[in-house]
Amino acid sequence: MRKTTLYLFIVILFLSMPAQAEQLRIGALIYDGEDAFMTSVFNLIRNGVGNEVEILYRDSQNMQSLQNEQIEQLLGASADALIINAVDRTAIIYLIKMIKPHGIPVIFINREPLHEDLLQYDKAYYVGNDPKQSGTMCGEILADYFLSHPEADINGDGVIQYVMLRGEPGHQDAELRSKHSILAMQQAGFQLEKLAEDTAMWQRAKAKDIMAGFLSSFGDRIECVIANNDEMALGAIEALKAIGVYSEDRFIPVVGVDATEPARAAVREGTLLGTVVNDSVSIADAALKLATLLARNEAVDELSFPYAINEARYVFTESQKVIAETMK
After folding, report:
1. Which CATH superfamily is domain 12-129+279-317 in?
2. Number of CB atoms found within 10 A of residue 63's CB
3. Cα 145 from Cα 68, distance rounded (Å)
4. What is the pTM of this model?
5. CATH class of 132-276
């Protein structure tokens, strides 16, 4: 009798215990593991999970065909959700068509889908920084500098001569950061003249080489450098250092975007005028939280998801200026 009672007690106790959530398997695909900023985002995703989530990380090595194969493999392995940093923005509609029949959520990050593409699947979302906002802030940092340093108009012609280092052609961040940095300076009352621009594909080494060419062609006519990200801004600074800028009171203002640790160090040392936070922590956190909630069919509301989602299923993280004054 006692054994039966004990057995019943154990059964009741077991049944009354909350069921353990089944471990989720979330595929996380980076477009290129050589990209410093995106690597920081995916490291945060991989380190931000507990025992309840397994991250299936894939590096697509900047090849869309490889990424397609990786997605097919993850779908075949019954992934519960996907977080995708697409190699090619124009391929996102194809990726959505691949994923939709499996009924699992997909969160695109960094490379923003076309609105009409995202509408094709009600479990597709985008998480990223607002490139209009970050571009505007770059322009504002430069405008504030020229307002307080009129001598930075080296030739005194009342026009700011600039060069631009752009990111990947067709990438929405490159296009909108470029456009809105210029608009912000114009709205502050400045006339601008573009001496040159080129794409350095987000890469420091390419930016250094391109900037060296700009300096060879335009020399002291260059009054500022606008770079679409910090790696390219730091490459430009390396080229400027090579010709003695930042020594003997010479200075050419350079701005970037991302607020990486090397960029913050350059702001502190006085070589980088400023950068704009592209919040890797919030991007990683929002993407992982959203993928987890959707995979479990749990409510996505203010209590469970502390980020705003607009009607188009876009989540934009906030930007913030990083200049010497903000780091004191």
Report:
1. Response regulator (3.40.50.2300)
2. 15
3. 45
4. 0.82
5. alpha beta
